[in-house]
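Chain A, query sequence.
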Amino acid sequence: MKASENKNHRTRVAAERREKTRARLLDSALYVFAQKGPHAVIDDVIAHAGMARGSFYNYFRTNEELLAAVARDVSNELMRAIDPLVIDCADPAVRVASGARLLLHAVKDHALFAAFVARLPFPTASSGLVGIQFLSRDVSLGISAGRFRHVLARPATDLVTGVVLSAAYSVTLQASDADYPEQMVRVLLRGLGLGMAEAARIVALVLPVLELPPESILARAGAHGPAVLV
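Chain A, predicted structure.
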């Protein structure tokens, strides 16, 4: 092997090892934060990950930085899994409604994720999400197509974001009806200007099956078992 090839191999192996270590930290943080809240100490995460304190600081400087990374990675990977399932819908109202329903059902179905969401401060949960980009796209399309009426793009996007995140928070705190996501999205569509019958029709549509890739943080976290809110 030439010297340059050997160097490239070492660089690649080091990058893969670094990514695996970061993933292990995020997995542990998701579990620990879900159990103890966003004020869990770094030592808890390190102990669960089974690594040295020095290794932790190679990736994150503070608890808050780690919490933000987990929130961003979990939310972004979930929305990247949801968007391909709705992007082919010609009706932007169906896109928005189906995406919101899939997200809320995911919160209900993933106990660990739900517990983590319940511990997040609201501003952290709503910042830097790729889902906002997808939502802004579909809201703008809905307004252009006349599906969303008497609303402007930014207020409408904020409306959907606020309702969905508040609903996600709510279902983590207390038991809710199996169709609670549909109840919330029906109200949301009404707020965007759709009639009662049309909103009911849209939320009655069969949802596609959401399958997370096995390498996703939520899929990996499932191995930890259910989380318990304390």
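DSSP finds twelve helices and no strands in the chain. Confidence is low (pLDDT under 50) at residues 223-230.
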